[in-house]
């Protein structure tokens, strides 16, 4: 369970990284929309696991580009939050598969062949 401090730090990172992907990293990602869905911070605040979802782009190619330019993204983050935190965390990016998983589960549920329930007769029978 995350402490309040970790949650507060994670929320700050999520907000700032979202703005970085919208503004500074726009040449990197092009027309793709990158959303920071979740951030988990280690107890010592030195490592942040960042989960990303992508729209309007090939997920694998954008993910690889972000992995290659991880240091630049961390540098942008340092310029934004460097005065308010002691340690700029190492960033570990992961693709967020929750939307794809939800779509997959929705497809499975819609493909189920569930027969309609039989109509029940009135339970109160006249004697």
UniProtKB/TrEMBL annotation:
<comment type="subunit">
    <text>Monomer. Binds 30S ribosomal subunits, but not 50S ribosomal subunits or 70S ribosomes.</text>
</comment>
<dbReference type="InterPro" id="IPR015946">
    <property type="entry name" value="KH_dom-like_a/b"/>
</dbReference>
<dbReference type="GO" id="GO:0005829">
    <property type="term" value="C:cytosol"/>
</dbReference>
<keyword id="KW-0690">Ribosome biogenesis</keyword>
<comment type="similarity">
    <text>Belongs to the RbfA family.</text>
</comment>
<keyword id="KW-0963">Cytoplasm</keyword>
<dbReference type="GO" id="GO:0030490">
    <property type="term" value="P:maturation of SSU-rRNA"/>
</dbReference>
<dbReference type="GO" id="GO:0043024">
    <property type="term" value="F:ribosomal small subunit binding"/>
</dbReference>
<dbReference type="InterPro" id="IPR000238">
    <property type="entry name" value="RbfA"/>
</dbReference>
<dbReference type="Pfam" id="PF02033">
    <property type="entry name" value="RBFA"/>
</dbReference>
<dbReference type="InterPro" id="IPR023799">
    <property type="entry name" value="RbfA_dom_sf"/>
</dbReference>
<protein>
    <recommendedName>
        <fullName>Ribosome-binding factor A</fullName>
    </recommendedName>
</protein>
<comment type="function">
    <text>One of several proteins that assist in the late maturation steps of the functional core of the 30S ribosomal subunit. Associates with free 30S ribosomal subunits (but not with 30S subunits that are part of 70S ribosomes or polysomes). Required for efficient processing of 16S rRNA. May interact with the 5'-terminal helix region of 16S rRNA.</text>
</comment>
């Amino acid at each position: 369970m995350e402490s309040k401090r970790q949650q507060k730090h994670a929320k700050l990172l999520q907000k700032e990284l979202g703005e970085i992907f919208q503004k500074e990293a726009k040449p990197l990602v092009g027309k793709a929309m990158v959303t920071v869905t979740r951030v988990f911070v280690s107890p010592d605040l030195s490592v942040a696991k960042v989960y990303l979802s992508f729209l309007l782009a090939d997920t694998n190619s954008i993910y690889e580009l972000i992995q290659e330019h991880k240091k630049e993204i961390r540098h942008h983050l340092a310029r934004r939050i460097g005065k308010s935190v002691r340690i700029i965390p190492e960033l570990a990016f992961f693709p967020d598969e929750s939307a794809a998983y939800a779509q997959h589960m929705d497809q499975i549920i819609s493909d189920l062949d569930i027969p309609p329930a039989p109509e029940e007769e009135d339970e109160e029978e006249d004697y």
